[in-house]
Design goal:
The chain is an alpha+beta fold. It is built from seven helices and 17 strands.
Length: 240
């Protein structure tokens, strides 16, 4: 059955659809020796699809990996600047995976990776409204700011959805807050805190779409169970 080429690439775990579209636009993808174009389709069973002259790998079993990303690692599989990437941490998993969403370099905690492009699109699409929970250690907190953080905010010209915020505890002049988001704009929590005069000391994602970080050590990963995969796969799907 013929499918869009970017969908084939993402289903084989070599890239997300967005990255696949970029590769196609750059002329790196060929079908039966001819350069592919955006919007074109192919038959994955009968056509020879190559990336940079290398044939597409055989279809893998669908897998999702939970990684406890340490600070200092870039959420990408390749970095032209030579910085440490999450690819180094999951290189022994045996699958061609890529990150679902992002965690910035200074943040740590739960990061999901998969070889299923459709699942990645579903989880990242705003219509999915998947809950993401973060523990954030800050300085400068006052009780009045809790209500302000939970109110609608506009950052970088974008009206954010309401965020759940509650205080977990204090230690001297430091306060631990829990943020629950149903979207994830670029560096959203850090920008929200900055707007309220809070200094972020650490930011850890502890849960994503019902999957908990738990006691997974820093830099370690595990493969999700079939039950966890079923939970992740539920909910609306982005249209083609």
């Amino acid at each position: 059955m013929r499918c869009r080429i970017q969908k084939i690439l993402s289903s084989r775990g070599v890239a997300s659809r967005r990255t696949a579209e970029k590769w196609i636009a750059e002329g790196r993808v060929t079908v039966n020796g001819e350069c592919a174009s955006l919007g074109s389709s192919a038959d994955p069973e009968n056509d020879v699809i190559c990336i940079d002259g290398v044939a597409l790998p055989c279809e893998e079993k669908r897998v999702v990996i939970a990684l406890n990303k340490p600070r200092g690692y870039i959420t990408t599989m390749h970095d032209e600047k030579g910085r440490k990437t999450v690819a180094e941490l999951v290189s022994a998993c045996g699958y061609h995976v890529f990150p679902i969403g992002r965690l910035d370099m200074e943040s740590d905690g739960l990061l999901l990776l998969t070889n299923d492009g459709d699942l990645a699109n579903r989880l990242c699409h705003p219509s999915g409204e998947k809950r993401k929970t973060y523990r954030v250690r800050v300085q400068g907190f006052s009780e009045a700011l809790a209500e302000r953080l939970a109110q609608p905010m506009t950052i970088d010209g974008y009206a954010l959805r309401p965020v759940e915020v509650r205080k977990i505890g204090t230690n001297g002049d430091e306060t631990v807050l829990e943020f629950v988001l149903t979207e994830g704009r670029n560096r959203q929590i850090r920008k929200m805190c900055d707007c309220c005069g809070l200094r972020v000391l650490s930011l850890t994602r502890v849960q994503y779409a019902g999957i908990a970080l738990g006691r997974l050590p820093k830099g370690a990963w595990r493969i999700l169970t079939e039950e966890e995969l079923a939970e992740l796969s539920s909910g609306p799907c982005k249209n083609e």
